[in-house]
Amino acid sequence: MKAHIAVLPGDGIGPEVTAAAVEVLQDVASRYGHEFAFSEHAIGGSAIDAVGEPLPASTLAACQAADAVLLGAVGGPKWSDPKAKVRPEQGLLALRAGLGVFANLRPVNVHPRLAGLSPLKNEKLAGVDVLFVRELTGGAYFGAKTRSADTATDETKYTVAEIERVARRAFELARGRRKHVTSVDKANVLETSRLWRETVTRVAADYADVKLEHQLVDSMAMLLLTRPSAYDVVVTENLFGDILTDEAAALAGSLGLLPSASLGAGKVGLYEPIHGSAPDIAGQGLANPLGAILSAALLLRHSLGLDAEAAAIEAAVESVLASSELTRDLGGDAGTREVGDSVRAALDAQQRAAA
Length: 355
Prior knowledge:
- This protein has 355 residues and is an alpha/beta fold.
- It has two domains: 1-107 and 258-355, Isopropylmalate Dehydrogenase, CATH 3.40.718.10; 119-252, Isopropylmalate Dehydrogenase, CATH 3.40.718.10.
- The chain has helices at residues 14-32, 45-51, 57-65, 88-99, 122-125, 160-175, 191-204, 217-226, 238-252, 290-302, 307-323, 336-354, and strands spanning 2-10, 35-40, 68-73, 103-109, 129-135, 145-147, 152-154, 180-185, 211-216, 233-236, 259-263, 269-273.
- A ten-stranded mixed sheet has the order 2-1-3-12-11-4-5-10-8-9, with helices on both faces. Strands 6-7 form a two-stranded antiparallel sheet.
- Helix 7 (191-204) links the parallel strand 8 and strand 9.
- Helix 1 runs parallel beside helix 12 and helix 11 (307-323) crosses helix 12.
- The longest helix is centred in the first third of the chain and has 19 residues, at 14-32.
- It is globular and about 55 Å long.
């Protein structure tokens, strides 16, 4: 197949990890007979430096015209003044809105070799395989904001339609997994959460084969650390999802391992590792590229419909985690390029074994 992938390297280690992911995608295209065209565009702090805004109109237009978007990371100390009128994160929020992506998928699992890197005891980590589905374009991040000398407000607003569409995505995904959805809210206090719970419960009636349970966000924060293997698909609103998925990253041992996919009603999706720009190691070739590479696998699966190719990348990463030298965040000494090359070598080994 032919596909156009917009690449947004962004800031910090973003250019390094996206370069590794693009090389893997190029390998996949060559091995499986596809044609992937790549174009690079500015976002975040680098875009502020270049044109004064975090999401140039040309970048948004290119992303909207592409089949999928691969993003590195945005932000860094250079642009971290909270009082600044223009910030890198604004570009990411505007991109999500501009692409109409409303469901952020973050899979979390634990490789046996890396269990010792988690702060949890190993027996707690057995069988952990959680898919978070975070609502991405509503809630406090997108609500109206006010600020005076001694008062600030952030509006949290949700509509039935916004809740329903992300809930349906969660239930559909659960049907392909272990058929268990946990909906997280704060319905004992917040009116938006009461609407959330009512709407998710109503949607669940259309998925009789999927079990639904509700959890309050504060208890869920505890349960993720005390019995993480009990959860399959977790769906929640924007702010809660942001916090809980970063907490869950501790289960895997490193933020550098975890991918994400942001999906809307169509095929165009936004794919990025969940880690930040890590400015302290930027440009040194030390960044872990596996989160970006696994994000590329999600891109193949969800935007291009290439399940076999996605599975091949995931199997290659699994092989690297099992037996290859890893980056510093995972207790190894390998650099970004070495790990990327190891993934490509594992893909080659798969193909030779299948021949």
